[in-house]
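Predict fold of Glucosidase 2 subunit beta; 480 aa.
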Amino acid sequence: VSQSYLLLDVFFSLSLGKNPYFYSHFGIVHDSCLCPSSGTFIPSSRINDGICDCCDTTDEYNSGAKCENTCKELGLKERDVLQKMAEITKEGFLLKQQLIEEAKKGREEKQGKVTDMQENKKQLDEKVEALRTVKETAEQPEKEAKERHLKAWEEQKAAIRLEKDKAKMAEAFLELDDNADGFVSVSELQSHAELDLDADGTLTETEVQGLMGGAAQVDTSTFESVWTNIKDKYHSESQPEEPAPVETPPDEVKEPVVDNDSEPYPEDDISEEEEEDDDDEDDYHEDDDKVPPNVKTPEKSHEDGEAMLPYDPDTQALIDAAQKARDDFEESEKALREMDNQIRNIEKELSFDFGPDAEFIYLYSQCYELTTSEYIYRLCPFNRVSQKPKYGGSETNLGTWGSWSGPENNKYLVMKYEHGTGCWQGPNRSTTVKLTCGKETVVTSTSEPSRCEYLMEFTTPAVCQEPANMDLSPHGHEEL
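Predicted 3D structure, encoded as tokens:
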């Protein structure tokens, strides 16, 4: 109750009594009247209507209504409410002072930590570059040694393949020389229909002579040229012929039955994977740090299935030295990435507007929940607001941190979270968070005043103001 109303109340009550005619006659009110006891205005239509609106009964001076003066009781209740509010404000303000002191200390520590880390980062940068040089220096002789080993192995494989090819050729000659006269004739070669050149199912004498270079028969010394022409198609008589694969018709694909008379109703909530993908995260994965194992025995050849010969001791020593250089480099480079991330995260935190005295910094990286009959609401200040069904289901983003949006005299009374999950045929969800003074930090209520626009009530000591001296006495005439 304002002091002016209280003085007006005293003046009119003591000097002129309780005659409302004075108020209207002297132009104090026209279409409404003033309750002297409370300083509130009531419409003229409610004067003498049989209902007591003023606690001191002055509005029913001529209605005959039996009203009781309840100003004292109302004053006592008002005093209790004001006392509780004053206590909460006082305790909350004291907590706010502690938050400011802790914030100041914490920011100084973080700024000092960033300074130290940036200095250490310079040294780590130099170490990484030095180890990079060591690694590259060690990898060059390793590469050359591996290439020499691989070349020797390829030559050895080529010799092995040549020996195997000669063995197959000798075996084929013996199989084709049916009369064992030491020659393979046109008729003997003609018995292998798989050598048919034009794929008409018949191996003609002309085709065989073409394979044999026009000769009527060849011995072991001249069979090599014939073998070059037939070895890709030749099938040894000693190997059983593989049965042709049986083609099975593909399973019949049944068209789904669609009921054109009904259309599924889309869910209102579009489920969202946690973000993230975050601007502050590097495209770095743990697997990037893994290096190939130091295998002393090379992998098997994919061509013939034979294992490559083990590296000789000198080559293996070069591989071991290069691998150690890689491990040292990867370890230091990983440490550098982690330090970069730490510096970036602290600098991001320090860049936020946490209030005039950083009193809101304690909310950073914290989350607060409110459970209703249907949902679990989660507020993570300076990050996001979300909603999740109480009995299972995907989480819905109700908005990510936008800005302080309070009135001009104190913008830190309202938080705005925007660009949440889109509503079905509607806008993206957003949330307005109203902050009120309280001893505890807690979400007290949540609602959806408009479709896809949410409202949260959030108490925190960070918004408590220093309490002013308050007159907690009741405003009834009996107290005057």
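Residues 1-30, 252-295, 470-480 have pLDDT under 50 and may be disordered.
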